Amino acid sequence: MTTTSTLSLAQVRDALLILPQPFQRGAVQDVVERLQTAPGELDPYLNFSSSGYTRTQFYHGPLYEILVLCWRAGQASPIHDHAASICSMAVIQGTCSSEVFHLNGDGHGQGLQAGEQAKLEPAGSASCGAGQILTVEGRDIHRISNRDDGGEDLVTVHVYLPPILTIRCFDEETGLCRVTEPRTLMPRL
Fold this sequence. Notes:
The protein is 9% helix and 37% strand. It is mainly beta. The longest helix has 9 residues, at 9-17.
């Protein structure tokens, strides 16, 4: 019998620990879809900045990490991939815009290294509101943004399996690839 009860963020962390390995995209999404945060639960992890979106660590382990991302209106991630990680993202507050890109006509630009250029091709977009889930995998290339014209903040929870050590980012104009380590903040506990 399958249960569909809601889970706190700590319960999502614990439910992921018992999933069979290797992680499967659908199983991860099924757990993250059950996330429902209580008022105040995310307060120590909410770090808004006028200079760009922030990533704050909720949990980090050898198999996965959970981050709370905060976005002011108009803020966006770079165009990027997720290396070898599955990313399941839950929208907690606001509306998230996701743009998907293909590289060099093959979708993922396999073998493309830092310093090389790729041809970026828009491949689709979607918007997700509070309570919705978006899951991408490995070499999927996308950009997340808060395009809210009314100034509403966006809060998203991201589960990365395994934790992301480096990502490939792409310049939208030139297609130049660079490899970077994402910057993650610690919570205010």
